[in-house]
Amino acid sequence: MPELVFQYLPHVNHGVWIVPTSDFQMEQYSKRDWIHSIMDKCQDPDQSFENWMNRDIQFAKFIKSEVHSRGLKLIEVDGRASVEDNLAIVENFFELSQNL
User: Fold this and answer.
1) Residues 31, 90, 82, 33: what is their CA dihedral angle, to the nearest 10 degrees?
2) Of 13, 46, 72, 91, which is least surrounded by CB within 10 A?
3) Do 8 and 65 contact (CB within 8 A), yes or no?
4) pTM for the complete prediction?
């Protein structure tokens, strides 16, 4: 939670938050095998999945708002960049080198 971490950051560039876009979240969660075993236990699996995703989408919006209001770094994952590309963004932000 940005508001809890922010007070402990020596500088705003000492933290980064990563959140999925709603489309990416829906797409990726629906591909996970374990999701279906959970949803199948619900009375209305489709509605339960939609409710779950809507809750998480609202949470991501809240995090984005908190991050932006504090001038912190946000990476929004939409699936266009690879995991390696996102890692490179984080490494560059923190000025890390893979050649340690």
Assistant:
1) -10
2) 46
3) no
4) 0.78
69-95 pLDDT tens trace: 999 999 999 999 999 999 999 988 888
* DSSP character at residue 8: T
Q: Are 93 and 73 in contact (CB under 8 A)?
A: yes
Q: Are 45 and 55 in contact (CB under 8 A)?
A: no
Kindly tell me the number of DSSP H helices and DSSP E strands found in the chain: 5, 2
For 48, phi and psi rounded to 5 degrees?
Answer: -65, -40
Percent helix, strand, coil in the chain, to 5, is 60, 10, 30
Say which amino acid occupies 78.
Answer: D
Q: Tell me which residues of the chain have a pLDDT lower than 50.
A: none
* 20 CB neighbour count, 10 Å cutoff: 19
Token code pair at residue 53: 């995703």
